[in-house]
Amino acid sequence: MRQLLLLIALLLMAGGAVVNLVAGSGPKWSRWACYGMASVASALVTATGALCLTGHAVSVDLGNLLDFGQTRLLFDPLAGLFLTLMGGLGLVISLSMLNWPPPSPAGGRASGWAYMLLLAAVTVVVVAADAFTFLFAWEALTVAFYVLVLATRADRSQPGAAWATAGVGAWGGASLLVGFSLLAGAAHSFDFATWARLSASAVHAPAYALVVFGFATKVGLAPFQGWMPRGYPAAPGPARAAMAGLAVNAGFYGLWRFLAVLGRPPGWLAVTVLVLGGVTALLGITFAAVQSDLNRVIAYSSIENGGLIMVGFGMALAGASEGNGVLTAVGLLAASLQLLAHAVAKSGLFLGAARFQPGGSEAPLDGLSGMLHTQGWASAAFAASALTLAGLPPTIGFVSEWFTFEALMQQFRLHSLALRLATASAGALVALTAGVAALTFVRLLGFVVLGRGSGTKPRQADVPSRWSLGATAVLCFGLSAAAPWTVRYIGRGLSPIVARSVVDGALKSPWVLQPVFSNFSALSPTWLFVVMPIGFLAVTLATVVLSSGRFLSVRRVPPWHSATPGVRGPDSYNAFAYANPIRHVLANILGTQKEVAAVPSRAASDIGDGTVALEGSDDLEAEAGPHRHTHAVFSAKAVEPVESYLYQPLLAAYMAVVRAAKKLQSGRLDAYVGYMLFALVAILIVAAAMG
Does pTM surpass 0.85? Predict the structure, then answer.
């Protein structure tokens, strides 16, 4: 039954791709046919995942289907957990794309079939049980990312973003290829099941590291995170949600799966993942906090969430390296809850942002204000998702971050000093990340959703889009309200890695959760939905009574102008100004470059005496000058340390090698024959030495 449902789903995805390639996305019927097939296929994938979770593991041997050894598929609870998540999100995103206008005739055709390829690739990745099938689907996913980033062809930055996305994907694929080759060579098989017996092999540790490195490129672990803030905003509309909320989970699935396959990791690998996860989370949220484009804020937030998930996974690796199954369970549970919160909330943020700014990839925060007045459904999904990613109760984001902190607090149970120090460092970085995240998403809520509004006519979302937006908003709160059942569901999915009974230790009682270890701490997300409204009503009622009703009276006061009369704009305090304290306080992380320059003032009628002129740039803030006809412009530019201090020097060294190699191209045939002879002799010497 599972195989049949999956086969029908893949055929529907292929059919949708054919319709899109033939008819494009211009005619309404072709969009409904294409994305309608995607919706049905995603529903079938979800049903397949549910069957995998409720039944026994089933292995399907397809013979020599791909002409590269035995092709096998595995339908087990871990695959079911990710199929359910990806299928459900695929259904939500596909519904939102039914009436989405194509960016251009060519872009609409490209984005349609690439979206179908993305859905098919992540589905095959999850069920693949041999190296070749897995790598084939993994590279197909990289191709889908490349095409989606380049699909709209809206501005000149897209080719660079597409190549960055494909380049990082190629490095990840190469790492997986080398790691898989080492494992396959030692086991004499491409079947994942045979690799579990290689824990004592000499190739186990290097292959483990290569596999983790390969998957880390897809999830944005530093220093491989640079493609996300470029690639995500360049993709068309809801396709950003498919990339950030759905497809990136294929990387996390690979990490979960190979923890089950390869077993006990080396301790140094756990230390590396913990530290890099914490650094990634802090870097991601810090740069998200100072961006002035909405899509880039969300993209950098994806880096932060990827880091938080990797911290939880690092805790699982630490437990597995010491043979502590309970520590492994608490780390995996925290990471899985964080993954679930990120997938749902990131989809909601990008779907809402696509409704706010449907015309292009740029969405400046200062141009978006009061979306609640014009886009009610999108604002609801956006607000719920922002609260989730800020980790505020009673959302599923609060539950996942609570479990992450509780997992890190178990560091005293580790025996290795290096693991203890790495866990403590990751905990400090995650704590700082949580504080900056609250500021970041309060800015989005305050300016984008709850602002004054532009006064434009409301644009109501179509019915399928309302369903998809409403679903993400409900899931952000509903998964928290049903947290005990969510934990049980995840525990069933993690059973191929850790015993289900161990994960169920997180259930202190039917309504109360604990971090797997008993008598440590407790939380009841379900009761929060009862206590918080009662507390809110009690405080409101007490305020009204004690104020003798004056609390409800309307008070009219002059608007605040940043304590400076005559400032241009409705209230002069914008998203850029809100982020300035973070630019200054975290200048060491941001590499903030400051400059003050005196420039000619605008006409007195435009600026006036001693007023502030705000420049419309991500990194510019103007302050009042001392003279009537000049004003000072203060610029603060954030510099990404990974790109500036790692990739740019490497690129400079690479180009130097290229320039040197060009000198060898003399155009003389005898020189080229000499090069070949030299290379042949070198190969023979190496082969003789190895023999």
Answer: yes
